[in-house]
Specification:
Layout: E1 17-19, H1 38-42, E2 55-58, E3 71-75, H2 86-98, E4 102-107, H3 120-136, E5 147-152, H4 154-164, E6 186-190, E7 228-233, H5 241-253, E8 257-262, H6 277-287, H7 304-316, E9 322-325
Parallel strand pairs: 3-4, 3-5, 5-6, 6-7, 7-8
Antiparallel strand pairs: 1-2, 2-4, 8-9
Helix pairs in contact: 2-6, 3-4, 5-7
C-alpha cells in the first residue's frame, strides 16, 4: 500500500518546529535517544545529533470559515521505541482539521529511557509540550482551556498520563514556561499500552484479567482528570481491560467518559474496521460542547451501575462491539 505523503493529505505537519528544551535545560538527557519520526530517521542524511530534543509542529490551520478555538495534540505511538504513527494519523488529522479543530504534532524522545521508568523522558517532554502549546495558543487562535490529546498505544499511555496525572510533576521546573499548567481538557486514548500491572513493559501477560491485576499507580486519577474517550480492539494484545478499568474508574469519579470496543480487532487504530477514530473524536467533542452538535447526536442517561453491568456482560461474551457514553 502506498505510504501517504504531504501531497496526498493536509494531515501532515507543515509549520516550523518548536524545540521544547535547550541542550542545557533538558532533563534526563540520554545519549541513545532522539526525537524524530521513523520517516525522518529513514531519510538520507539523517543526523541523530541534530534531533535530540523533543519538538512541536503545527499542522496547516483549518479553513477560516469553520475554524474553532479547540486544539488537538497528536501523540505518536511506537512502544516508546520510536514515533511511527504519523502516516496512520494523517487521514484522521485531515478529517479533524476539516471540522475546524486546530492540530499540532508532538514528537518525544525515544527509544526507551534507561535507568528510569521507560516512559520518563517522554512524560517530561509531554508535560513540557502542553505548556508550550498553551503558551503558543493565542497566536494560533486556540483557547488554552480547550487543548486535548489523542494517541495510540504508547502514545495513548502518554495521553493518559497527561489526562490523569497532571498533578504529578514529571520534572523540576527549568524556566518561566514551567509556570504554565500542563493539564489537558480532554483525551482520546486509543488502545493504550502499559496501563495494567500485568503488562507494564510488554503485552499483558494475563490479558488484564484477574482480581490482583489493576491500573498502574502512576495514573493518579487526580482532581484534574479530564473527560476521556477510549477506543480499543477486543482482541488486542495490550488488553482492552486497560480501557475498561480506566473507564470504570472515571465513571466512579463522575468524570465524563466514553468507551468504544470493536470485537475481534487487534492492536492499532489503523486496523479497526468499525471504530474509525475521526467520527468518534468529533462526536466526543460535540458531546462535550466544544464543537457544534447535530440535532441527532446521541447522548446517554445510563447510570454507572448499568455501565458496569454492560462491561461485565462484554467480558462474558466479547464477540460484540460495546459503546458506552456517559
Amino acid at each position: 500500500m502506498k505510504t501517504p505523503s504531504p501531497a496526498d493529505f493536509n494531515g501532515f505537519p507543515q509549520g516550523p518546529k518548536t524545540y521544547l528544551w535547550t541542550p542545557e535545560n533538558m532533563p534526563d538527557p540520554q545519549p541513545h535517544q532522539i526525537a524524530a519520526t521513523t520517516e525522518e530517521v529513514a531519510a538520507p542524511g539523517f543526523d541523530p545529533d541534530a534531533n535530540r530534543i523533543a519538538t512541536l509542529q503545527w499542522f496547516q490551520p483549518p479553513a477560516e470559515a469553520n475554524r474553532t478555538d479547540v486544539c488537538l495534540v497528536v501523540v505518536s505511538g511506537g512502544g516508546y521505541g520510536c514515533c511511527c504513527d504519523i502516516p496512520s494519523f494523517a487521514p484522521v488529522v485531515q478529517q479533524v482539521l476539516a471540522a475546524g479543530v486546530n492540530c499540532v504534532n508532538f514528537i518525544y524522545r525515544t527509544p526507551r529511557a534507561q535507568g528510569i521508568p521507560l516512559y520518563q523522558t517522554a512524560w517530561e517532554d509531554a508535560q513540557r509540550a502542553i505548556r508550550m502549546v498553551r503558551a503558543q495558543a493565542p497566536e494560533h487562535g486556540v483557547d488554552p482551556d480547550k487543548i486535548g490529546v489523542a494517541g495510540c498505544s504508547a502514545g495513548s499511555h502518554l495521553c493518559m498520563l497527561l489526562a490523569l496525572s497532571a498533578r504529578t510533576p514529571a520534572y523540576k521546573p527549568v524556566d518561566a514556561l514551567d509556570n504554565l499548567p500542563c493539564h489537558v481538557a480532554w483525551a482520546i486514548p486509543m488502545c493504550p499500552a502499559y496501563v495494567l500491572t500485568d503488562g507494564l513493559l510488554e503485552p499483558n501477560a494475563w490479558g488484564g484479567r484477574g482480581p490482583d491485576i489493576g491500573i498502574d499507580p502512576v495514573f493518579a486519577f487526580d482532581d484534574l482528570s479530564c473527560p476521556c474517550c477510549f477506543l480499543h480492539g477486543g482482541n488486542d494484545q495490550y488488553s482492552p481491560y486497560a480501557s475498561i478499568k480506566s473507564y470504570r474508574r472515571l465513571r466512579e469519579m463522575g468524570v465524563r467518559t466514553e468507551l468504544h470496543l470493536e470485537a475481534g480487532a487487534p492492536h492499532g487504530f489503523a486496523n479497526y474496521t468499525r471504530l474509525k477514530p475521526a467520527p468518534y473524536i468529533l462526536a466526543f467533542l460535540q458531546r462535550l460542547g466544544l464543537l457544534p452538535a447535530p440535532p441527532d447526536l446521541v447522548f446517554s442517561d445510563r447510570t454507572k451501575d448499568q455501565d458496569l453491568a454492560a462491561t461485565v456482560a462484554w467480558e462474558k461474551d466479547p464477540q460484540h462491539d460495546l459503546h458506552l457514553i456517559s
